[in-house]
Design goal:
This protein has 555 residues and is α/β, with parallel strands linked by helices. The chain is built from 18 helices and 22 strands.
Length: 555
């Protein structure tokens, strides 16, 4: 018997160090970890000890005897990763003990953001037991969570569950939570440095990449980020106009977010009623006329950006046909990576699967790219340019072949990537949409000089890549850099202490919400959801959040 990693895998690699036989890969020390779809258990070396089950934060690991129906392919998928590959153990960097500089008090750090990268940074700081650490977390909304709350699909509760483990450091002595405080508006970067040795920015990527085609800004053309925020109840997207009156929607891009929005659009609303999807979105989807979603990728099956677990989930979606043109997923050449080959073969198998005649369907299109969004005042369709796949110096690229096709649609969702936005007062790499950095230390790109006491983690550091757990190792690497600077006495001591920060917040942010306020909001949402048979009913209005928080001060 062996254990198997399944769909909810978050890649935070908590399972890796507890495995006594080194059968879980890729590890964070191995090449390819940051790009891995998930982690995999080697069925030939697993000894069924169960240690990994106890530490998995999302319950993604199961015994092969306990696999049920839709999860059966994961046994084959885990084995496929090891085809022709026997990982060579890589010596990890041993963490050294950090000695505080002479004459200093506690290390005071500020973390801006409250999503996975921010929480992992807090956890990593408190893990240094040899230091007296004080951490202040700042979030511009009255509720924490970042993409865990507003980016994960509502029908993926297992992934959302990682938030419980991410917030475990919040009850530590020395931690304070400051919600409803916007850095750059309520407080400046300079304000933070006056009260802390260092500031870690883990603010994610709240913007969008663009298609740069005609008609992109027509009514009915939205970014997938906006749509995801809408159905997840983000306060800034609750009033978004989402036209669901046409039978067809088109999603441009074929990453995991593209598949998420396609799935939500055609899932039976009764299945969504048991999730924490926003009430306004549930009502709109119940009245939706959308019966077909076309998901468009510019390259072929071997280059599909979505992960295999997302594809497996889509293939088993009840009441929805998955339609694929066999010609568009025909092999384009040999594939070395066994997981990529397994996914491409699965796409070809699904292309041959007969339709069930279900009332709704998702169509996966390949080798096509948008040339224009059609319409006058509002979207009426998309013009697609067909592509050929060609070899460009050993790299497969898509190039237009001159053929075009107009696809009628009433809604276009652009799922071509999130993008970081500038942080007031800090240098910014406009091309990549990130804070320029060296080993997590923010630098001035003009001079290469470090910005004193300033660090980055997560998507604002490396761009919108990886999954939730990837942020753990990204944040830990940044914290190691911060601690090295602290030990070398390169961080200026804060001018003011805790009392000074409390006074500043009281003066600038009268509606700051602390941990007690968030607990009140959390309890309110859960209780409201319980009465409707749902895990929670999210508050989507900031005023309502503040009313429930009761104006609680930071605790």
């Amino acid at each position: 018997m062996t254990h198997v990693i399944t769909q909810p895998c978050c890649n935070d690699a908590s399972c890796v160090p507890v495995c006594p036989v080194d059968c879980i890969h890729p590890t964070p020390d191995e090449p390819g970890y940051a790009r891995a779809e998930m982690l995999y258990i080697d069925p030939e070396t697993c000894i069924d000890c169960g240690a990994c089950l106890d530490v998995c934060p999302v319950e993604a690991i199961v015994s092969d005897d306990d696999l049920e129906g839709d999860d059966d392919p994961y046994l084959l998928l885990n084995a496929a990763w090891y085809e022709g590959r026997r990982p060579v153990p890589v010596a990890g960097t041993e963490r050294t003990t950090v000695a505080p500089p002479a004459g200093g008090g506690p290390l005071r750090g500020a973390v801006v953001g409250s999503g996975p990268a921010a929480c992992y940074a807090v956890e990593s700081l408190f893990a240094r037991r040899e230091l007296d650490v004080r951490v202040s977390m700042f979030e511009r909304l009255p509720v924490p969570g970042g993409l865990l709350r507003y980016g994960v699909a509502p029908d993926h509760p297992g992934t959302r569950g990682v938030g419980t483990s991410l917030s475990r450091s919040w009850t530590r002595p020395g931690f304070t939570l400051h919600l409803n405080v916007e850095i750059g508006s309520d407080l400046s970067h300079a304000d933070l440095l006056e009260h802390h040795h260092a500031v870690v920015y883990a603010v994610g990527a709240p913007g969008d990449r663009r298609l740069d085609v005609p008609g992109e800004d027509l009514r009915g053309s939205l970014s997938a980020r906006e749509f995801v925020a809408w159905y997840n109840g983000h306060p800034e997207a609750a009033g978004l106009e989402v036209d669901l009156s046409a039978e067809r929607a088109v999603v441009i891009g074929n990453g995991n977010v593209a598949l998420d929005v396609a799935r939500v659009l055609v899932t039976d609303p009764d299945r969504l009623r048991g999730t924490d999807i926003a009430e306004h979105a549930l009502t709109a989807l119940a009245d939706s006329a959308v019966r077909e979603v076309v998901v468009v990728g510019r390259r072929g099956a071997e280059q599909a950006a979505f992960t295999t677990p997302e594809l497996l989930e889509l293939a088993e979606l009840p009441g929805v046909d998955l339609v694929i043109d066999p010609a568009e997923v025909a092999p384009a050449g040999p594939v070395d990576d066994p997981v990529v080959r397994w996914k491409a073969n699965l796409l070809r198998e699904l292309a041959e699967r007969p339709a069930t005649g279900a009332g709704r369907r998702i169509v996966l299109r390949f080798r096509a790219a948008p040339e224009a969004v059609l319409g006058e005042a509002a979207v009426t369709g998309v013009r697609l340019a067909h592509n050929d796949l060609v070899d460009d110096g050993g790299r497969t690229v898509a190039r237009p072949n001159g053929r075009t096709e107009d696809v009628p649609a009433g809604l276009v969702l652009r799922a071509v990537g999130y993008r970081g936005t500038a942080v007031p007062g800090l240098p910014f790499d406009e091309g990549r949409g990130v804070l320029p950095h060296r080993d997590g230390r923010v630098v001035d790109p003009a001079t290469g000089a470090a910005v004193a006491g300033t660090y980055a983690a997560g998507w604002i550091k490396r761009g919108p890549s990886g999954v939730i757990g990837t942020n753990r190792w990204c944040a830990e690497a940044t914290v190691e850099t911060l601690l090295a600077d602290y030990a070398a006495d390169r961080l200026a001591a804060p001018v003011h202490g805790d009392d000074g920060l409390a006074d500043l917040l009281a003066d600038r942010c009268p509606n700051v919400v602390g941990l007690d306020g968030w607990k009140a909001i959390d309890a309110h949402e859960r209780e409201s959801g319980r009465s409707a048979g749902r895990p929670r009913r999210k508050l989507v209005d900031v005023r309502d959040m503040l009313d429930v928080a009761g104006g609680a001060r930071t605790t």
